[in-house]
Design brief:
The complex is a heterodimer of chains A (287) and B (271). Chain A is mainly alpha-helical and 287 residues long. In chain A, 82% of the residues lie in helices and 0% in strands. In chain A, helix 2 packs across helix 7 (165-202), helix 4 runs parallel beside helix 7 (165-202) and helix 5 crosses helix 8 (209-219). The model of chain A is unreliable at 1-5 (pLDDT under 50). By secondary structure, chain B is an alpha/beta fold. Chain B is 29% helix and 22% strand. Chain B has a six-stranded mixed sheet with strand order 6-7-8-3-9-10, with helices on both faces. Chain B has a four-stranded antiparallel sheet with strand order 2-1-4-5, with helices on one face. In chain B, strand 9 and strand 10 form a beta hairpin. In chain B, helix 3 (111-123) runs parallel beside helix 5. The longest helix of chain B has 16 residues, at 185-200. Mean pLDDT of chain B is 87; it is low at 1-9. Classes of the chains: A mainly alpha (287), B alpha/beta (271).
């Protein structure tokens, strides 16, 4: 097969595609994706290990500086997102109940409403939706913030003051995002469960609040609470590490910050899906 | 290879570079200076001059321990400065202060918080810390802007805050990277007076004279202040020697940087 007629400028991201045959181009394309993925996993994994090493070795050090920064990050990743999380929880309750009520009513299985809410909202959609919310609002701000700091030479300024940049920049963000994510997930799930009943009530489903909540209580197990906590904290830590890695780990210029942000968001989404898959496997094995 | 040792050779030098290759701080694959042999004794006052992109900032970054030499050894108070933030390494690192070109303040902290950061991080909260922060703010003369973010004040003032931040932990060596670039005459006067006082023993440093290294692209302001001189040219660190040898030295860049008048440039004719 002949090469393309339109030749992109030298250095273009797609230049490799036009140089070889189409089939060879596809191999190169996927090969390059694979290599880039492996390098990213390697880099982010090493950065995560360094971060958790610093987190453990510096517990209780410089608390007058680190504690206020951690509280600020909890506010950014949790408290300030509460209005949007409330709106999303209402929407989530509507979506799940709205779609299932008509089907369940037709087959006379309204007693499964609570069980469906637990299966979809508590186990899957609640944590995932919260993760995407935190990623969009707090995660992107983190890359831009740290990327700007990196480009402006603030990392070097910290080093010369004897302040570990990972301790100062990354640890508060990882802790803050994990705590904020966990709290926000709990609020979003509670909101979605309540709004679910509200929408069921508005659709004249013959279901008392006591029945609805007892259905959910019987569908929930202790493992759900443990895995919900673990999953939301894993989402928070993971997103924070990926964001901080792209903002801080490599030298950046101001012009590269936007590209780093895009890359960080893409990789965070992939990471969230991988975490989600891991927990599905855990549920299946435990169930 | 040149080596300059200015004063008491029996004492441990403040810092010493032997056959050091300096790379760019941003990209370690770019060599900016080679075969640097430099000894700075305690109490010395060095002025290092070079044109733009001659490697002044990278040399200061290496001297402060931000970057590592690609080759050679860099000793600080007789010990090799290695990466890390453990107690012993930290204690050594904190004996050096660096004022960056432009200050390089943390953009999310106010001017006062920037000064307070090293004190709060290393010393914690206390009345002596608050008093020191206040004294450093007074040194800069920027108390009315203490609650402003760096973006709200000009670059020169950011650099003053950078000086106060570098002095916060009372270092023994102070490195000033291009402190006079782009200043108006009044600001130049403030910097020269302050550096003179620091060299002689400023009250903010408990009257103890600092070991000073300043860089710049003009040696004239430092000619009667610094005690040792060097220039950077063609990736080389060229020690010039003490002040009284300046006029006898025929290094062309030195003479250019000491020239009183700018050379008149040929007028370009319009076509």
């Amino acid at each position: 097969m002949r090469t393309g007629i339109v030749v992109p400028p030298e250095g273009s991201d797609t230049a490799f595609f036009w140089k070889g045959s189409l089939a060879r181009g596809y191999f190169r394309f996927f090969g390059r994706l694979l290599v880039r993925f492996i390098l990213s996993v390697h880099g982010i994994g090493a950065f995560a290990l360094i971060t958790f090493g610093v987190m453990l070795s510096k517990i209780g050090i410089a608390t007058p500086v680190i504690r206020p920064m951690t509280l600020l990050q909890i506010a950014r990743a949790g408290l300030r997102l509460l209005p949007l999380a409330t709106f999303l929880s209402l929407a989530l309750g509507l979506i799940v109940i709205g779609q299932t009520v008509s089907v369940l009513s037709r087959v006379g299985a309204n007693e499964l409403l609570g069980t469906i809410m637990v299966t979809t909202v508590v186990r899957e959609l609640g944590p995932l939706l919260t993760a995407l919310l935190v990623l969009c609002r707090a995660g992107t701000a983190t890359v831009v913030d740290l990327g700007t700091a990196r480009a402006m030479g603030e990392v070097e300024a910290l080093e010369v003051l004897g302040i570990d940049p990972v301790h100062y920049f990354v640890v508060p963000r990882v802790v803050g995002m994990a705590v904020g994510m966990f709290a926000l997930t709990v609020y979003l799930i509670i909101g979605a469960l309540l709004s679910g009943y509200l929408w069921a009530f508005l659709q004249d489903v013959p279901l008392s609040p006591g029945d609805y909540f007892s259905q959910m209580a019987s569908a929930l197990s202790g493992l759900d609470f443990v895995l919900l906590g673990a999953k939301s904290i894993a989402f928070g830590c993971g997103i924070a590490v990926v964001m901080c890695y792209h903002g801080l780990a490599q030298p950046l210029t101001l012009g590269e910050v936007s590209r780093a942000t895009v890359r960080a968001v893409s990789q965070s989404i992939v990471f969230c899906v991988l975490i989600e898959m891991f927990f599905i496997v855990v549920y299946l094995l435990a169930g | 290879m040149n080596s300059v040792s200015a004063t008491n050779s029996s004492a441990v030098p403040a810092f010493e570079m032997r056959n050091v290759t300096v790379t760019a701080t941003r990209d370690a694959s770019i060599v900016v200076l080679e075969q640097v042999n430099w000894t700075v004794e305690a109490g010395d006052f060095w002025a290092v001059a070079g044109l733009l992109r001659s490697g002044k900032s990278d040399l200061m970054a290496l001297a402060a321990g931000i970057s590592r030499p690609a080759r050679g050894v860099h000793h600080l108070f007789g010990q090799e400065l290695v990466a890390g933030y453990e107690h012993e390494r930290l204690a050594l690192r904190l004996r050096v202060g660096l004022v960056f070109d432009g200050g390089q303040l943390l953009h999310h902290l106010t001017l006062e918080e920037n000064i307070a950061l090293p004190l709060l991080y290393h010393r914690g909260i206390g009345p002596d810390v608050s008093a020191r922060i206040q004294a450093l703010l007074e040194l800069t003369g920027l108390e009315p802007w203490a609650a402003s973010l760096p973006s709200a004040v000009n670059r020169n003032w950011q650099q003053r805050i950078g000086l106060a931040r570098a002095l916060a932990l009372k270092p023994e060596i102070l490195l000033l990277d291009n402190p006079l670039t782009g200043l108006d005459p009044r600001d130049v006067g403030w910097w020269l007076d302050t550096v003179d006082a620091l060299a002689a023993g400023h009250p903010i440093m408990d009257g103890k004279p600092l070991t000073l290294v300043v860089t710049g692209d003009d040696l004239r302001p430092w000619r009667h202040r610094a005690r040792q001189f060097a220039v950077l040219r063609n990736q080389q660190f060229i020690p010039v020697g003490p002040r009284d040898q300046l006029d006898d030295n025929h290094e062309p860049l030195l003479q250019e940087l000491l020239a009183l008048e700018m050379r008149s440039l040929p007028r370009t004719s319009k076509t």
